[in-house]
Design a protein that fits this description.
11% strand, 3 strands, mainly alpha, elongated
């Protein structure tokens, strides 16, 4: 009987573990944990007592943050300190 990790899948799993998420984002586990704690990545779901991230949601979250980071400062939503900081940094760089 082949082990779980010996089986090749034709597609990536929809929900991934922290180790897989860190690997797919090319981050260390400690960096991944910090980014999740700071709200730079979505929080995980609990599935059968295990923490898992929906890979599609992670991709959408990253795209949305990148779109906000490249939008003009006037379009950044107010009240979100993280997004306002990104907008200020973009304005300062220009």
């Amino acid at each position: 009987m082949p082990k779980k990790y010996d089986v090749e899948r034709p597609y990536a799993p929809d929900y991934v573990s922290a180790d897989t998420l860190a690997y797919r984002l090319d981050l260390s586990r400690s960096t991944l944990d910090r980014r999740i704690g700071r709200g730079e990545l979505p929080k995980p779901y609990s599935i059968g007592g295990l923490q898992r991230w929906c890979w599609a949601e992670v991709q959408d979250f990253i795209r949305a943050c990148n779109a906000l980071a490249t939008a003009p400062a006037a379009e950044a939503p107010s009240g979100d300190e993280y997004l306002e900081g990104i907008a200020r940094a973009e304005t300062a760089d220009a």
